[in-house]
Sequence to fold (344 residues):
Amino acid sequence: MATEFASDAAKQPKLWWWGAVAAAAVILGIVPTMTDISLQLDLSILFVFMLLAMSMGFLWGYAGILSFGQTIFFGLGGYAYTILAMNMGTTGLPFLMAVLLPVVFAAVLGYFMIYGQISDIYLSVITLVVTLIFEKSMRSTSGPEYVIGTVRLNGQNGIPGVPGLVLPWIGDAPLSIAGVFYLSGGLVLCVYVGLRMILTTRFGRVIVGIRENERRMELLGYDARWYKLLAFMLAALIASLSGVLYAIWGNFVAPEMFNLNQAAQVVIWVIVGGRSTLIGPVVGTGVIQYLSNWLGTVGVGQVTVVLGAILMIFVLVFPRGLLPTLGAAIAALWSAKDRKGRGK
Fold:
């Protein structure tokens, strides 16, 4: 089934797909005019997490690399933007640098793991350990001596007062709540379309081929390690972008951005939605976040326990993820209807 979805992704998108993307863009454009500020804030943070989930979905579902390190780049992006923006007094250049700096770290980390020919399970463990190191390190920076430029790291208390993003073509004022909504939602749409188009290129096809049979691709003359490193860096780029948007959205960063709970939650989003599709992690994020918020509003005391039980049932009912399972069911019904029609 994963191979089937991968082969579909390698094809050029059909006209109806572009129509759906255009419809999503139109809906995104009119939502702020029809909703209040609180809903815009909720949707904006949902878009931020969708970006993070897409980075994991691409890396795991198409490159075959299960990494618990997406929160590393998520946290690095947020902290890099905060420190650079507060020191430089501007936000445009810090935004770009904060997105790119975690990619450099990903290139170094990925080089030693991938070119060191570490097995998949050990790669997952190493990224988990590095996540722990970053979280513990940031929590231990409470003292006044932990300063970068003029910015105190504040340990587990985090850094408040993160500057809002100022775009020169819209004036000198930072983005409003609606502006952050448009930016985060627009980036989700652009990243989704970009990844979808990448999968139709030679690079995308090679990545999927390496996931299916790495040895065969090497015998065909492809450097599997180089392609996997590029995929790792691309996923880090998307995760760091998500982290920067998180800092802009909340005007705050803290060590919880590196938290293991956050790292595990990203994996859950992808599993629920389906890792063999790009849209699956997006849907999985929406489903899990909605369940979490709903359980909190109805007064459930142990939200984590109840949510865990729901997820266990969910995974048993939809073992391949929500969208691939529903897609397979619809395809089976359509095929049965077609055979019945031919039988008549």
